[in-house]
Write a structure and sequence with these properties.
72% of the residues lie in helices and 0% in strands. It has helices at 20-41, 44-65, 70-77, 81-84, 88-93, 95-106, 110-116, 120-156, 168-192, 195-218, 231-239, 251-258, 264-288. It starts with 19 loop residues before the first helix and ends with a helix.
Length: 291
Protein backbone atom coordinates (compact mmCIF):
# COMPACT_ATOMS: atom_id res chain seq x y z
CA UNK A 1 0.00 0.00 0.00
CA UNK A 2 1.49 3.29 -1.06
CA UNK A 3 1.48 6.27 1.27
CA UNK A 4 2.57 8.98 -1.18
CA UNK A 5 0.60 12.15 -1.87
CA UNK A 6 -2.61 11.82 -3.80
CA UNK A 7 -2.47 13.36 -7.24
CA UNK A 8 -5.46 14.47 -9.25
CA UNK A 9 -5.80 13.40 -12.89
CA UNK A 10 -4.62 15.92 -15.42
CA UNK A 11 -7.23 18.56 -16.26
CA UNK A 12 -9.16 18.10 -12.99
CA UNK A 13 -9.15 20.59 -10.12
CA UNK A 14 -8.86 19.76 -6.46
CA UNK A 15 -12.45 19.85 -5.13
CA UNK A 16 -11.18 21.29 -1.84
CA UNK A 17 -9.92 24.38 -3.69
CA UNK A 18 -12.97 26.44 -4.71
CA UNK A 19 -12.85 28.47 -7.88
CA UNK A 20 -13.13 31.83 -6.19
CA UNK A 21 -13.07 33.77 -9.47
CA UNK A 22 -15.90 31.62 -10.77
CA UNK A 23 -17.84 32.10 -7.55
CA UNK A 24 -17.55 35.88 -7.78
CA UNK A 25 -18.61 35.86 -11.44
CA UNK A 26 -21.60 33.68 -10.60
CA UNK A 27 -22.53 35.97 -7.72
CA UNK A 28 -22.27 39.04 -9.96
CA UNK A 29 -24.43 37.48 -12.67
CA UNK A 30 -27.07 36.36 -10.16
CA UNK A 31 -27.08 39.80 -8.55
CA UNK A 32 -27.53 41.57 -11.87
CA UNK A 33 -30.30 39.20 -12.94
CA UNK A 34 -32.08 39.59 -9.64
CA UNK A 35 -31.92 43.39 -9.75
CA UNK A 36 -33.18 43.46 -13.32
CA UNK A 37 -36.07 41.12 -12.54
CA UNK A 38 -36.93 43.15 -9.45
CA UNK A 39 -36.88 46.42 -11.39
CA UNK A 40 -38.81 45.10 -14.40
CA UNK A 41 -41.48 43.49 -12.23
CA UNK A 42 -42.41 46.77 -10.52
CA UNK A 43 -45.07 49.08 -11.89
CA UNK A 44 -43.58 52.36 -10.72
CA UNK A 45 -40.43 52.22 -12.95
CA UNK A 46 -42.65 51.69 -15.98
CA UNK A 47 -44.78 54.68 -15.05
CA UNK A 48 -41.71 56.86 -14.52
CA UNK A 49 -40.18 55.71 -17.79
CA UNK A 50 -43.47 56.43 -19.57
CA UNK A 51 -43.48 59.99 -18.20
CA UNK A 52 -39.94 60.56 -19.47
CA UNK A 53 -40.89 59.21 -22.90
CA UNK A 54 -43.96 61.46 -23.05
CA UNK A 55 -41.80 64.48 -22.22
CA UNK A 56 -39.39 63.39 -24.94
CA UNK A 57 -42.24 63.25 -27.45
CA UNK A 58 -43.30 66.74 -26.41
CA UNK A 59 -39.74 67.97 -26.80
CA UNK A 60 -39.57 66.50 -30.29
CA UNK A 61 -42.77 68.27 -31.34
CA UNK A 62 -41.49 71.52 -29.81
CA UNK A 63 -38.17 71.31 -31.66
CA UNK A 64 -39.96 70.39 -34.87
CA UNK A 65 -42.03 73.57 -34.88
CA UNK A 66 -39.47 76.00 -33.43
CA UNK A 67 -36.03 77.04 -34.63
CA UNK A 68 -33.74 76.85 -31.60
CA UNK A 69 -30.20 78.11 -31.34
CA UNK A 70 -27.62 75.32 -30.79
CA UNK A 71 -27.34 76.04 -27.07
CA UNK A 72 -31.09 76.12 -26.53
CA UNK A 73 -31.49 72.97 -28.61
CA UNK A 74 -28.99 71.11 -26.42
CA UNK A 75 -30.82 72.27 -23.30
CA UNK A 76 -34.19 71.06 -24.60
CA UNK A 77 -32.75 67.67 -25.59
CA UNK A 78 -31.22 67.32 -22.11
CA UNK A 79 -34.59 67.94 -20.42
CA UNK A 80 -33.85 71.58 -19.54
CA UNK A 81 -31.08 71.29 -16.91
CA UNK A 82 -30.59 75.08 -16.93
CA UNK A 83 -34.20 75.92 -16.16
CA UNK A 84 -34.75 73.18 -13.55
CA UNK A 85 -31.11 73.19 -12.29
CA UNK A 86 -30.79 69.51 -13.25
CA UNK A 87 -32.29 67.38 -16.02
CA UNK A 88 -35.98 66.92 -15.35
CA UNK A 89 -35.52 63.26 -16.26
CA UNK A 90 -33.08 62.98 -13.34
CA UNK A 91 -35.71 64.24 -10.91
CA UNK A 92 -38.11 61.62 -12.26
CA UNK A 93 -35.77 58.62 -12.43
CA UNK A 94 -33.29 59.00 -9.56
CA UNK A 95 -35.73 57.29 -7.18
CA UNK A 96 -34.95 53.98 -8.92
CA UNK A 97 -31.60 53.95 -7.13
CA UNK A 98 -33.04 54.96 -3.77
CA UNK A 99 -35.79 52.33 -3.94
CA UNK A 100 -33.35 49.55 -4.79
CA UNK A 101 -31.71 49.98 -1.38
CA UNK A 102 -34.53 51.28 0.81
CA UNK A 103 -36.95 48.50 -0.21
CA UNK A 104 -34.65 45.90 1.32
CA UNK A 105 -34.75 47.59 4.70
CA UNK A 106 -38.44 48.48 4.49
CA UNK A 107 -39.44 44.87 3.74
CA UNK A 108 -36.73 43.31 5.94
CA UNK A 109 -35.16 41.62 2.93
CA UNK A 110 -31.60 42.81 3.53
CA UNK A 111 -30.74 39.81 5.73
CA UNK A 112 -31.92 37.43 3.00
CA UNK A 113 -29.76 39.20 0.43
CA UNK A 114 -26.72 38.97 2.70
CA UNK A 115 -27.28 35.24 3.30
CA UNK A 116 -27.99 34.24 -0.30
CA UNK A 117 -25.22 36.18 -2.03
CA UNK A 118 -21.59 35.55 -1.23
CA UNK A 119 -20.67 39.23 -1.47
CA UNK A 120 -22.59 42.17 -0.08
CA UNK A 121 -20.42 44.50 -2.13
CA UNK A 122 -21.42 42.67 -5.32
CA UNK A 123 -25.11 42.95 -4.41
CA UNK A 124 -24.71 46.67 -3.78
CA UNK A 125 -22.85 47.30 -7.02
CA UNK A 126 -25.48 45.32 -8.94
CA UNK A 127 -28.20 47.61 -7.59
CA UNK A 128 -26.29 50.67 -8.73
CA UNK A 129 -25.36 49.22 -12.12
CA UNK A 130 -28.87 48.11 -13.06
CA UNK A 131 -30.76 51.19 -11.85
CA UNK A 132 -28.22 53.63 -13.30
CA UNK A 133 -28.16 51.87 -16.67
CA UNK A 134 -31.96 51.72 -16.79
CA UNK A 135 -32.34 55.42 -15.96
CA UNK A 136 -29.66 56.56 -18.42
CA UNK A 137 -31.00 54.33 -21.20
CA UNK A 138 -34.53 55.62 -20.66
CA UNK A 139 -33.45 59.27 -20.70
CA UNK A 140 -31.17 58.87 -23.71
CA UNK A 141 -33.76 56.82 -25.60
CA UNK A 142 -36.39 59.49 -24.99
CA UNK A 143 -33.94 62.15 -26.20
CA UNK A 144 -33.20 60.23 -29.38
CA UNK A 145 -36.95 59.82 -29.90
CA UNK A 146 -37.22 63.62 -29.63
CA UNK A 147 -34.61 63.98 -32.37
CA UNK A 148 -36.42 61.53 -34.64
CA UNK A 149 -39.77 63.26 -34.19
CA UNK A 150 -38.24 66.72 -34.70
CA UNK A 151 -36.45 65.56 -37.85
CA UNK A 152 -39.67 64.13 -39.26
CA UNK A 153 -41.65 67.30 -38.57
CA UNK A 154 -39.03 69.64 -39.99
CA UNK A 155 -38.58 67.44 -43.06
CA UNK A 156 -42.34 67.41 -43.65
CA UNK A 157 -42.41 71.19 -43.34
CA UNK A 158 -39.43 71.52 -45.68
CA UNK A 159 -37.39 73.38 -43.05
CA UNK A 160 -33.68 73.03 -42.32
CA UNK A 161 -32.74 70.33 -39.87
CA UNK A 162 -31.09 71.18 -36.54
CA UNK A 163 -27.36 70.59 -36.21
CA UNK A 164 -27.59 67.07 -34.79
CA UNK A 165 -23.84 66.28 -35.09
CA UNK A 166 -23.07 69.18 -32.75
CA UNK A 167 -25.29 67.61 -30.10
CA UNK A 168 -23.09 64.51 -29.67
CA UNK A 169 -20.90 65.95 -26.88
CA UNK A 170 -23.78 67.43 -24.82
CA UNK A 171 -25.78 64.21 -25.09
CA UNK A 172 -22.76 62.13 -24.07
CA UNK A 173 -22.31 64.30 -20.98
CA UNK A 174 -26.06 64.13 -20.34
CA UNK A 175 -25.92 60.34 -20.38
CA UNK A 176 -23.04 60.26 -17.89
CA UNK A 177 -24.86 62.68 -15.58
CA UNK A 178 -27.98 60.51 -15.78
CA UNK A 179 -25.89 57.48 -14.86
CA UNK A 180 -24.73 59.31 -11.74
CA UNK A 181 -28.12 60.37 -10.33
CA UNK A 182 -29.49 56.90 -9.40
CA UNK A 183 -26.03 55.96 -8.09
CA UNK A 184 -26.09 59.04 -5.85
CA UNK A 185 -29.55 58.11 -4.61
CA UNK A 186 -28.51 54.53 -3.87
CA UNK A 187 -25.34 55.60 -2.08
CA UNK A 188 -27.10 58.17 0.09
CA UNK A 189 -29.89 55.71 0.92
CA UNK A 190 -27.34 53.09 1.95
CA UNK A 191 -25.75 55.65 4.26
CA UNK A 192 -28.89 56.76 6.09
CA UNK A 193 -31.25 53.82 5.33
CA UNK A 194 -34.24 56.08 4.68
CA UNK A 195 -35.52 57.11 1.27
CA UNK A 196 -37.47 60.27 2.15
CA UNK A 197 -34.48 62.37 3.34
CA UNK A 198 -32.58 61.31 0.20
CA UNK A 199 -35.46 62.35 -2.04
CA UNK A 200 -35.78 65.70 -0.28
CA UNK A 201 -32.03 66.32 -0.48
CA UNK A 202 -31.77 65.51 -4.20
CA UNK A 203 -34.79 67.67 -4.96
CA UNK A 204 -33.90 70.70 -2.84
CA UNK A 205 -30.12 70.84 -2.93
CA UNK A 206 -29.59 71.35 -6.70
CA UNK A 207 -32.51 73.75 -7.08
CA UNK A 208 -32.04 76.01 -4.06
CA UNK A 209 -29.81 74.97 -1.20
CA UNK A 210 -26.64 74.72 -3.27
CA UNK A 211 -27.23 78.28 -4.49
CA UNK A 212 -27.50 79.50 -0.90
CA UNK A 213 -24.38 77.58 0.07
CA UNK A 214 -22.54 79.06 -2.92
CA UNK A 215 -23.52 82.61 -1.98
CA UNK A 216 -22.32 82.10 1.59
CA UNK A 217 -19.04 80.53 0.47
CA UNK A 218 -18.39 83.30 -2.06
CA UNK A 219 -18.37 85.82 0.80
CA UNK A 220 -15.55 84.00 2.57
CA UNK A 221 -12.12 85.37 1.55
CA UNK A 222 -10.25 82.92 -0.64
CA UNK A 223 -13.32 80.78 -1.39
CA UNK A 224 -14.87 82.86 -4.17
CA UNK A 225 -14.19 80.12 -6.75
CA UNK A 226 -15.77 77.33 -4.70
CA UNK A 227 -19.39 77.89 -5.89
CA UNK A 228 -18.32 77.15 -9.48
CA UNK A 229 -17.04 73.75 -8.34
CA UNK A 230 -19.98 72.59 -6.24
CA UNK A 231 -21.20 69.21 -7.55
CA UNK A 232 -24.50 70.07 -9.19
CA UNK A 233 -23.24 73.38 -10.58
CA UNK A 234 -20.39 71.34 -12.06
CA UNK A 235 -22.93 68.91 -13.53
CA UNK A 236 -24.77 71.76 -15.26
CA UNK A 237 -21.48 73.05 -16.62
CA UNK A 238 -20.67 69.54 -17.86
CA UNK A 239 -23.82 69.48 -19.99
CA UNK A 240 -23.32 73.01 -21.33
CA UNK A 241 -20.93 72.11 -24.16
CA UNK A 242 -22.69 74.30 -26.72
CA UNK A 243 -22.40 77.99 -25.93
CA UNK A 244 -24.05 80.53 -28.20
CA UNK A 245 -21.46 83.23 -27.69
CA UNK A 246 -20.61 85.50 -24.81
CA UNK A 247 -21.90 88.57 -26.65
CA UNK A 248 -25.43 87.21 -26.96
CA UNK A 249 -28.16 89.21 -25.29
CA UNK A 250 -29.15 86.37 -22.97
CA UNK A 251 -25.60 85.27 -22.16
CA UNK A 252 -25.71 86.84 -18.71
CA UNK A 253 -29.04 85.23 -17.88
CA UNK A 254 -27.82 81.85 -19.10
CA UNK A 255 -24.66 82.15 -17.02
CA UNK A 256 -26.74 82.98 -13.96
CA UNK A 257 -28.84 79.86 -14.49
CA UNK A 258 -25.73 77.78 -15.09
CA UNK A 259 -24.06 78.91 -11.87
CA UNK A 260 -20.60 77.81 -12.97
CA UNK A 261 -18.03 79.06 -15.45
CA UNK A 262 -15.76 76.00 -15.41
CA UNK A 263 -14.97 73.91 -18.48
CA UNK A 264 -17.51 71.15 -19.23
CA UNK A 265 -14.87 68.42 -18.98
CA UNK A 266 -13.83 69.60 -15.52
CA UNK A 267 -17.46 69.80 -14.46
CA UNK A 268 -18.02 66.21 -15.53
CA UNK A 269 -14.94 65.05 -13.60
CA UNK A 270 -16.11 66.85 -10.45
CA UNK A 271 -19.63 65.42 -10.59
CA UNK A 272 -18.38 61.89 -11.30
CA UNK A 273 -15.85 62.15 -8.45
CA UNK A 274 -18.58 63.36 -6.08
CA UNK A 275 -20.80 60.45 -7.15
CA UNK A 276 -17.98 57.95 -6.71
CA UNK A 277 -17.27 59.23 -3.19
CA UNK A 278 -20.94 58.87 -2.20
CA UNK A 279 -21.15 55.40 -3.76
CA UNK A 280 -18.03 54.21 -1.92
CA UNK A 281 -19.24 55.59 1.41
CA UNK A 282 -22.66 54.00 0.89
CA UNK A 283 -21.06 50.70 -0.09
CA UNK A 284 -18.99 50.62 3.09
CA UNK A 285 -22.10 51.23 5.19
CA UNK A 286 -24.15 48.67 3.27
CA UNK A 287 -21.49 45.97 3.53
CA UNK A 288 -20.88 46.40 7.26
CA UNK A 289 -24.48 46.33 8.48
CA UNK A 290 -26.05 43.02 9.43
CA UNK A 291 -29.63 44.15 8.87
Amino acid sequence: MTTGPVTMPTGQENPTEPDRAGMHRSCAVRSLRYEWKRLSSLRSPRILAGIVVLIGIGNGIDIGFNAYSPGALADVLQFAPLASQAPMSAYILFSLGATAVSAEYAHQAARTTFLVLSSRRTAYLAKIAVTSAAAAATALGSTLLSAVIATGIRTARDEPLPGWPGMAAPLAAFTVVMLCWPALAAGLTALIRHRLPVVMFLLLWPMALERVAGILLSRVPGLSAVPDHLPFAAARAAMHFVRDGEDAEDAGFTQALLGSAIHPALGLVIFCAFTAAVVVAGGMAYSRRDV
